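2024-03-11 09:14:02 DEBUG pipeline.ingest accepted 1 chain
2024-03-11 09:14:02 DEBUG pipeline.ingest length=76
2024-03-11 09:14:03 DEBUG pipeline.predict start
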Amino acid sequence: MKQVVMKPLGEVAEFINGRAFKPSDWSEAGVPIIRIQNLTNPTAPANFFGGMFDERHAVKDGELLVSWSASLDVFV
C-alpha cells in the first residue's frame, strides 16, 4: 500500500489571483477572457481583451482554475 504524504497546498502549488476585467476593458478582438460564466457554461459567449496584460495571467493547458468569487468550484 502506498503511503500518503499530506502537505499544505502552498508547498505544492503556486496561487495567482486572476485579473479583474471591467466591461469597459472588453473588446471585439484579442485574447479571450475566462469568466466564471464561461467555466460554468461552456456555450456562454466569450469576452475579449485587446490590451497588454501580465503573462502570469495567461492560462496554459493543464492549469487548475479555482473560482472563489460568488461561487466555489474547480476547473481544468
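2024-03-11 09:14:41 DEBUG pipeline.report The chain has a mean pLDDT of 88.
2024-03-11 09:14:41 DEBUG pipeline.predict end
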